[in-house]
Amino acid sequence: MTDVTTQPISGAKTVTPAATRRKTSRINGPAIVMGLYLLFLLLPIYWLLNMSLKTNAEILGGFSLWPRDLTFANYTKILTDPSWYMGYVNSMIYVVMNTVISITVALPAAYAFSRYTFLGDKHLFFWLLTNRMAPPAVFALPFFQLYSSVGLFDTHIAVALAHCLFNVPLAVWILEGFMRGVPKEIDETAYIDGYSFGRFFIRIFTPLIASGIGVAAFFCFMFSWVELLLSRTLTSVDAKPIAATMTRTVSASGMDWGVLAAAGVLTIVPGALVIYFVRNYIAKGFALGRV
Amino acid sequence: MAKITLDNLAHSYLPNPSSENDFALKELNHDWTDGEAYALLGSSGCGKSTLLNIISGLLHPSQGRILFDDKDVTHAPTAERNIAQVFQFPVVYDTMTVRDNLAFPLRNRGDDPKYIAQRVNQIAAMIGMEDRLNQKARGLTADAKQKISLGRGMVREDVNALLFDEPLTVIDPHMKWELRTQLKALHHEFGHTMIYVTHDQTEALTFADKVVVMYDGRVVQIGTPQELFERPAHTFVGYFIGSPGMNLFDATIDGSTASISGTQIDLGAGYTPQTGRTQVGVRPEFIKLSTDGTGIPARIQRIEDVGRHKIVRLDVNGQQIAAIADEGANIAADTNRIVFDPKGINVYADDWRVQPQQEAA
Amino acid sequence: MNKTVNQKAWFLVLPVLVLVAFSAVIPLMTVVNYSVQDTFGNNQFFWAGLEWFREMLDSERMWNALTRQLAFSAIILAIEIPLGIFVALNMPKKGFWASFCLVLMSLPLLIPWNVVGTIWQIFGRVDIGLLGYTLDKLGISYNYTQDFIAAWATLIVMDVWHWTSLVALLAYAGLQSIPDAYYQAAKIDQASRWKVFRYIELPKMAGVLMIAILLRFMDSFMIYTEPFVVTGGGPGNATTFLSIDLVKMAMGQFDLGPAAAFSIMYFLVILLISWVFYTVMTNLDKRDGV
User: Fold this and answer.
1) Which ipTM score applies to this complex?
2) Which of A1, A9, A15 sits opposite B72 (nearest CB)?
3) What is the pTM of this model?
4) Residue B82 confidence (pLDDT)
5) What is C59-289's CATH number?
6) Are residues B266 and B332 part of one domain?
7) Which of B12, B116, B131, C245 could potentially form a cystine with C65 if both were Cys, beta carbons 3.0 to 4.6 Å apart?
8) Could you tell me the CATH number of the domain that includes residue B257?
9) Each residue of A67-101: pLDDT tens digit?
10) 94-153 in C: which are within 8 Å (CB) of A?
11) Which residues of C70-95 are buried (b: 16+ CB within 10 A; e: fewer)?
């Protein structure tokens, strides 16, 4: 009856590194794939960094894989000129405002969707999601007119509110996914213990879905930070985002490539910082919620 | 089906184990007979899962060999070992039908489709799922899914061993009984070598021919349920098996008598002198209550009626012990002594059972 | 989970409703309003009925933009989804290298879209960009502002560069949720690598992959900034996608009526396709939930 297809391994009595040997040969394939993929991702970014450290003369004068004549002049220009660096400040202000607003209004709504059935809940949920599908291009002109008419044009809050269009539905969706994972018994126990809804929500429930809030905030930050069409349409001077500032590097003497590259590198920094801080949440967060 | 030999086997999760305490599984030498059903019993962290993973090939032991029918498979990958395993929670291929699930291992080996069809029907009949063969596995209940995993394990006729890793954990209590009975019946029918990991003594005792009791990374006893009950080789076995567990009394042993808190007890057999901590172990079933002034002084604390019998909790010199009395027994209010049935007395030195002289001879 | 019926839950949803009504409903009403009126300037509007819709439906310009848009979305989905899955399968499961890959892979996702455009605009230039320079030196004629193929290729590679990581991260999350026992069972059943993927990994990833497809479809269908920066919709109209065309029409030419009618149809197409996705997705959810 026995049909053992195993080859007997020469009477190894003690530890053989067979397992470890097999492991190293197995790791190579994926490592090569990941290496190539990361190279593909990083090469264009490296090129931007490379250019930001060159003078315009060197950029246009010849081709080189790294800066021969290392200069920080491009960065100095951005960090000393208010019309440049205020762009970053403006962007940061409306991104943070948007993230706070989105999470604050999304939390109770997500709780309602995850815990209760009420009249029209499914339609409401789908309608909310449809706003995530609305092309910003469709809304650009109406937004412009709307915010101009209420006197909010060229303010940070206008951009923050406009970005709620796609961030609030997304936040509700992510948070609802996380909240569904929290057993309802926890709510019931808390109410039996005499907690009011508000106190329960802040003291008990919010800490439980902290990673969900982290993930939702990450996505809100991300989509608000990278968006240009609406933020450019709704601002002119006072709240002008860095992304819009960058579109005007063409001067009389032609393109200022060095400064453009340096500005680009600086827009990557906040994103990189955020990723670094949530690096342990990315994996966990992606796995726990639906997103 | 195969005989499984554990030769000098030990495992440590640390890279360079120095002392015995570093080993999650301490050195083992055993032959497990072809066609028997074994249960690996122990509390969590006792090393039973480590041992199972070594047998299934998920782990490679840091020392020693494992042989299937005298062939060394210590470093063979799982696929080559030709074993089947049922996991703690049901592992089924959700998108496949029940039929495809059962046929999967056979198809992977390129067996003849006619044979596969016939074999799948046979297995489906055995696990009672013939009428649901064309259903997708996705929507089934946990116990139906677990039956499929079980069926997938049985479908290959020539498996060396069937491994069960606490397979009834997620099953409803009333279904547990049914599945266990089914397993037992399947074992009788096919005679696979089966290894069943559990922390539930009822499961282990009802399922297995031989129970392997593990404690602290060590196999403390391998025996039939009766042996475990009557002659526990280690105080842990006495305590872990049986409800309530074995009573242990510190005692000094002198030939065939023991002295327990000043009272002389006849052990019914002679023992060689022992060093270390000596104890007398008596199961509650072998303790009789007495009123006539012989035996060890004891005081009744309370009586629990569990239906089939009564459990009498007593205080002996400050120590809690239990005795079992028949359901109909009238327990005298003036009970003040206990006596031991010599049949049920075991002597332990440093937690290990000491063989009496006649038995050893 | 069994949900309780509670109409008061509406109060919890109210803040969202108010906010979204302000930022979506009111602007959308403006659009609808424009779409049925005509103007000769001076803020004088009069009823035009469905005239603009009829005009847009007959407009070759819109159909061309729609065709280009559909082609673009289809191509990037066909590349990004399989590539994302492939990358996810090769990612380290845990430890330092896992976070290392996660951090680097997330990087393109947090770069402002116009900067993404700028990066590729520079990268592809024959005089100063690594990609353009290399291709030129290899003797391949490449100019994304002049050549139709080069423009499309650049935009597609850019989008793959930009968004494949999102698909990979979602797929990775799906893979992480598979218990080890499944892989062990597959080994015991002697399943091939392909079968492990087909019967274990793919079914477990199905949910997150639907989300990935939905997100990628929607976002690629609305793409504006990146191609605007790189090609500006050219050469000619070769890369004029729906959003670019719409902005040209509304903000450039101030053809409010046609632009509004265009907007509404644009939105409806996205809604329709997304609704199909959503229905399929919730059905999958339900089947999983049994």
Assistant:
1) 0.84
2) A9
3) 0.80
4) 86
5) 1.10.3720.10
6) yes
7) C245
8) 2.40.50.140
9) 877 888 888 888 888 888 888 899 999 999 999 99
10) 98-99, 101-115, 118-120, 122-123, 127-131, 133
11) eebbebbbebbbeebbebbbbbbeee
